[in-house]
Amino acid sequence: MKKQMFALVSLLVAASMVLAGCGAPATPQVIEKTVEKTVVQTQIVEVTAVPQPVEGGEIAVIVKTGNSSFWQNVQTGAMDAQNELQAQTPKLTVTFLGAQSESDINEEINIVENAINRGVKAIVLAPSDVTALQKPVADAKAAGIPVIIIDSKLDGDPSQYVSFLATDNKAAGEACAKALIDALAAKDITEGKVQVMSYVAGVGSEIGRVGGFNDYITANSNFTLLETQYSNADMPTALNQTTNVLQANPDLVGIFGANEPTAIGMGKAIQQAGLSGELVAIGFDGNQVLADMVKDGTLNAIAVQSSYNMGYLGVKYAYDVAFAGKTIPDYVDTGFLMVTKDNIDSQDAKNVLY
Fold first, then answer.
1. Is 288 exposed, middle or buried, given 0-12, 13-18 or 19+ CB atoms closer than 10 A?
2. What secondary structure letter does DSSP report for 62?
3. Which CATH number fits domain 169-304: 1.10.220.30, 3.40.50.920, 3.40.50.2300, 3.40.50.150?
4. In this structure, how many other beta carbons lie within 10 angstroms of the beta carbon of residue 250?
5. In percent, how much of the chain has pLDDT > 70?
6. pLDDT tens track for 112-164
7. CB–CB of 341/78 below 8 Å?
């Protein structure tokens, strides 16, 4: 009987141990859930680590001076480009700055350096000097800031900037010379003195423009070029210089004013001397004052650049490089139009006059 009781107890103990072992799977299920949760958390961390796109930044448009209609038209183009681009980059800003005068090269250098120091995304620059602005442009590149050059090409290494947007100034100067020769030929004048009224010596646009004019006159006519006068792009200075030239050279047959303030001063001097329609005169650029001088016969023609395109395309290309990582052309010709009485009311002329 005792043996039977011992066996029964042993069986009960064994059964208890088996039953205790049957409850063990609950613990692995908890561990399995913990592992699942860890995996999900790891995946969330990976998703939030993806870089976000740049929301905005500044494109600085820096020109030779803000004190002329030409550069103000550049500003109009730049701001129109900003308004379009803000649809895709709402926090984009375009700033516009220029020196007090085109001859104040140091002021423009300081404006560029300040833009670099505040970490702009890109710079659109019209350099007032072909050599003095080389170092600031190189500094911008070293800081990782792409530079688009407009209007006047820099000397030196072109790899320091990403693109150059401008009128073909040599071709425009040649067109002005041809217009002067043709207008003189219409008066049966094939020889005599011709005066060039220029703006700032050494500026890239001036070198191409006046160089193209002078070379064409020399190669294609018998006219004598007098010593070039430089107004520093100041209208009153150009007026006084032209007045002196007219008084010293009563036999002058032709004259060329190579930029907006210079051409305006030249035209005013011609009007004051009573020589409108008698002296053949060609101007450059196309604000309302110069357009009126074409209409009243003071100027035979004006070569008008698309200054609006310089600002508009300059900002667009700067955005493509700095924000979209695109490759852009090394050179873009923004064009010009010879405006005369015959075409001044055409749509083509209205598109470039300002």
1. exposed
2. E
3. 3.40.50.2300
4. 9
5. 85
6. 999 999 999 999 999 999 899 999 999 999 999 999 999 999 999 999 999 99
7. no
**CA distances to 44, 124, 152, 220, 221 from 213, in Å:** 68, 28, 17, 11, 12
CB count within 10 Å of CB 29 equals 9
Asked whether the domain spanning 169-304 has the same topology as the one spanning 56-166+307-334, the reply is yes
Q: Find out whether 122 and 320 touch, Cβ atoms under 8 Å.
A: no
Strand partners, 91: 56
**What sign results for the dihedral spanned by CA atoms 260, 136, 161, 125?**
negative
Distances 40 to 28, 34, 49 between C-alpha atoms, Å:
19, 10, 15
In this predicted model, what pLDDT tens digit does every residue of 159-180 receive, in sequence order?
A: 999 999 999 999 999 999 999 9
Question: By C-alpha distance, which of 199, 214, 210, 189 is closest to 279?
Answer: 189
pTM across the whole model? 0.79
Instruction: Give the pLDDT confidence of 274-309 residue by residue, as tens digits.
Output: 999 999 999 999 999 999 999 999 999 999 999 999
Q: Are strands 191-198 and 229-230 parallel, antiparallel or unpaired?
A: parallel
**Which residues have C-beta within 8 Å of that of residue 201, sequence separation ≥ 6?**
230
Topology of domain 56-166+307-334, CATH: Rossmann fold (3.40.50)
Find the radius of gyration of the CA atoms of the chain.
36
pLDDT tens digits, one per residue of 46-101 = 433 333 445 799 999 999 999 889 999 999 999 999 999 999 999 999 999 999 99
- Domain locations in the chain? 56-166+307-334, 169-304
3-class SS of residue 295: helix
**φ, ψ for residue 290, nearest 5 deg:** -70, -40
